[in-house]
Amino acid sequence: MTRISPAGRWRTIVVDDEPLARQTLRLLFAREEDFTIVAECGHGAEGIDAIRRESPDVLFLDVQMPEVDGFEVLRRLGPGTVPVVIFVTAFDRYALQAFEHHALDYLLKPFSDERFSLVIGRTRARLRERRFASMAGQLSKLLLATAPERRQLVVRDGGRTLVVPHADIVWIEAEDYCTRIHLRGRTLLVRESRRALVDSLAPAEFVRVHRSAIANVACIRTMEPVASGDQRLTLDDGTVLKVSRTHRAEVVAAVGTRLQREREGSRRN
Amino acid sequence: MSLYERYRDREMAATRLQAELATARLQALRRHLQPHFLFNSLHSVAALARAGDTAGVVRLVAALSELLRYVLEAGDRHGTLREELQIVERYLEIQRARFSDRLDVTLTVAPDAVNARVPLFIVRPLVENAVRHGLAPRVRAGSLVISAVRNGEQTRIDVEDDGVGLPAGWNLHDATGTGLRNLASRLAAEFGDAAALEISARETGGVRATVTLPYSPS
């Protein structure tokens, strides 16, 4: 699958919709003697064409792009098409969580020269040792987890169909015959059972707090013991929820995973 | 309930209130700063530095600083339309540096409108919205037309884009984004029925956002 170019350099494609971002990668790659950029693309569809044409060894892929974003590029090509994929993103909590979760390399904009060298070093090692199968596996899991239908909730509210991004949900409350979705600043009452809703949520993002409440892990601000021996959770919007003993371990684990990811994220550059 | 418990409850309520206030402030700050925009802009600064374009670095850092200062200092302040539009220009300057090949901007302000007293952050959300939701989701170049006029006792500001347009069935009331709803509620809180925010589809494609509010000289 991997082709070595005549000069023996790793053939690289850069896809980013910002001209300056492409330029900076071009400058950084100019210092790496064993890499050569064979195509620079300003949007996803162009990237797909270039990848099919050039079959590169390495892809530096911006996540947020118009029309066809980074995930969609890989989805359309299939996860094994390019041996090594490095994601580049500025700020997308959801994408970062996904990269961490699937142990994929990424560059957070703006990145230092050192961070770039580190990622290039790992890429080089992967290419030399031909460790591509594991990356294809990680990528296909990532694509599954980031499929558009898993990033948002589609609910019926009266006669209307609403699309609610997961990131907007603070917590979800089960009522007798319906479910109340608390968004930032307002609530939606929907007639779907909580069970159906929960099945469509990304498992790492939400955690059950007690029998009838589910919280967005990213919205948990504090967890503290109260006099009765229970735990009390405070969410971003000021909501206070009791954590039942049966779900306490789950909540602690979810918060722990999140904190660890945040720490790793901040140590990266 | 013992005196101590009552005391402790009150302490806890006060702490919670303070935390809520801090969160509200943080959310407002985050809304105005927009992390995605901020980090991409900083990436552009780094890119200019790597390319040795010192003049470009300085220009972008200055524009970004002006925006940040405005966000940090403005609060609920009022200012002139001129001030607000200057900040919009800084914002667009940064966006143009990032998307030179994709953004075409026309800004026209009637001379009798520039000194109108307006709540700050009244135009920027409309422009950001047009860029983020109208123009950014599309590959080909887009144009943005910003205009402000005075109609007797009213100031009218229009922000038009020729971008992807509104999703089918979209209306302001059901919008999940907080930017526009926040602007609408700020206008309602301050001016009641005397101010309005209208978002409509343009016949030629794209979106027109219009704010009308009572004119008052600064």
Strands across the major sheet of chain B, in which order?
2-4-5-7-6
CATH-level-2 architecture of the largest domain in chain A: 3-Layer(aba) Sandwich
Number of strands of chain B: 7
Strand content of chain B: 15-25%
Q: Short description, anyone?
A:
With 269 residues, chain A is of the alpha/beta class.
Which features characterize this protein?
heterodimer; A: 269 residues; alpha/beta; Rossmann fold; OB fold (Dihydrolipoamide Acetyltransferase, E2P); five-stranded parallel sheet; five-stranded antiparallel sheet; 29% strand; B: 218 residues; alpha+beta; Heat Shock Protein 90; five-stranded mixed sheet; two-stranded antiparallel sheet; 6 helices
Tell me what you see in this structure:
The complex is a heterodimer of chains A (269) and B (218). Chain A is of the alpha/beta class and 269 residues long. Chain A has helices spanning 19-30, 44-54, 70-77, 93-101, 113-129, 133-145, 194-199, 245-267; strands spanning 10-15, 35-41, 58-62, 84-89, 106-108, 152-157, 160-165, 169-174, 179-183, 186-190, 206-210, 213-216, 220-225, 231-235, 240-243. Chain A folds into two domains: 10-145, Rossmann fold (3-Layer(aba) Sandwich), CATH 3.40.50; 152-267, OB fold (Dihydrolipoamide Acetyltransferase, E2P) (Beta Barrel). Chain A has a five-stranded parallel sheet, with helices on both faces. A five-stranded antiparallel sheet of chain A has the order 10-9-8-12-11. A three-stranded antiparallel sheet of chain A has the order 13-14-15. By secondary structure, chain B is of the alpha+beta class. Chain B has one domain: 2-Layer Sandwich (Heat Shock Protein 90). In chain B, strands 2-4-5-7-6 form a five-stranded mixed sheet, covered by helices on one side. In chain B, strands 1-3 form a two-stranded antiparallel ribbon. The model of chain B has no long low-confidence stretch (mean pLDDT 85). Chains A and B meet through helix 1 and strand 7 of A and helix 1 and helix 2 of B.
